[in-house]
Amino acid sequence: MRAIARRLGIALKTVQRWVARAGTQRLDRVDWRDQPSTPRRTRRLPADVEDRVVEVRRLLLASDLGECGALAIQFFLRDAGEPAPSLSTIGRILLRRGLLDGQRRVRRPPPPRGWYLPDLADKRVELDSFDVIEGLTLPTGDDVHVLTGVSYHGRFAAAWPHQSVVTNIILDELVQHWRLAGLPDYAQFDNDTRFQGPHNLPDTFGRVIRLCLSLGVTPVFAPPRETGFQAAIESFNGLWQSKVWNRFLPASLDELRERSARYIIASRHRHRDLLLAAPARRCFPTLWSLDLQAELKGRVIYLRRTNDHGQLDLLGHSYLANALWARRLIRAEVDFQDHSLKLFSLRRSQPHEQSLLSQHTYIPPSRPFREISSKSYTPKPSHDPND
């Protein structure tokens, strides 16, 4: 039967149904006509029962309580000593008669992956997303923080467990990771001060931002308290915790690093086809050092939501996007070459329409960078066996 199904290009279940219909009869005596899929005998309630359900609903709708759902109808019929259908049957009766007044939620198709960056959605560039897993504790009582990363299209993952993840460790791991994997066009973070820099001073660009800009990588910061933008890295965080942390319950940090490294290698092997089909990455420059006092070049992108007046609070300043674009998403691009701040509209329902709402002059700060004392930064060799 399988051979016949493959030769005729039909499902195996269809051949089995024909054989079962023929049984032991001669083939010329079998009725091969199509038969309706509905059963020959149905258990549909009589019309007078349906009419009674509709009448009870009308009575309950005009009652003092006003409850006229399936549960209220069933309770009324049972209280009156009449046969009461099940709740699902009453619901189907109301649906057939068009008496359901509830409004169904309109399900719209989701926007494409990376829709807020047009070149990322078109798979012309690659984006690396980074985050920190916190709240893990070893049996010894020591806390564990894990810096994680994953690429958008290639699913190239990484995880670096540490006792604490500070900015220096983030810089070390990013440099070592990009030396191995190559440079992406975008690097996405949340609004943690370890990634963005201090929030208490205006026009502040932290060390991670300056690292990205010195390598020609555009930092992208997800909007606070918004879902979907960090879905890729949050999904990987949950997968790492279930497959490494919860699965093996490591007793020490060294054991956790070993287990994590083995999982990362297996994950990269699993997604090797996606990595080969992903957009090309740039080679890491051979002669490079991070100068934190260097002039800022490139772009920094902030995904934000405007306030009730269509204004945007960014970098310690307030900018008017559009009075008609209140409480809406926008993409703010700080361009250090053009000394401009461009605000683009973002719609999940119309992801391809990202019009320019307004443009403002932005002059980067001329004060020296004072977050650390040294002017140059030399990354340390990574001890993590992921790479």
Main attributes of the structure:
3 domains, nine-stranded mixed sheet, 387 residues, Nucleotidyltransferase, domain 5, two-stranded antiparallel ribbon
Structural class: alpha+beta
Beta strand %? 15-25%
- In round numbers, the mean pLDDT is 90
Question: Helix proportion of residues, in percent?
Answer: 25-40%
Outline, from the CA principal axes? extended
What is the fold named in CATH at topology level of the largest domain? Nucleotidyltransferase, domain 5
Report, as a whole number of angstroms, the end-to-end distance.
Answer: 52 Å
Give the count of helical stretches.
12
User: Main beta sheet: strand number and arrangement?
Assistant: 9 strands, mixed
Secondary-structure element series: HHHHHHEEEHEHHEHHHEEEEEEEE
CATH superfamily of the largest domain: Ribonuclease H-like superfamily/Ribonuclease H
Strand segment count? 13
Question: What's the domain count?
Answer: 3
Based on the structure given, which CATH architecture of the largest domain is correct?
A: 2-Layer Sandwich
| Strand order, sheet with most strands | 3-2-1-4-5-7-10-11-12
What is the name of the CATH class of the largest domain?
Alpha Beta
Radius of gyration: 31 Å
**Which residues sit in consecutive blocks of at least 5 with pLDDT less than 50?**
372-376
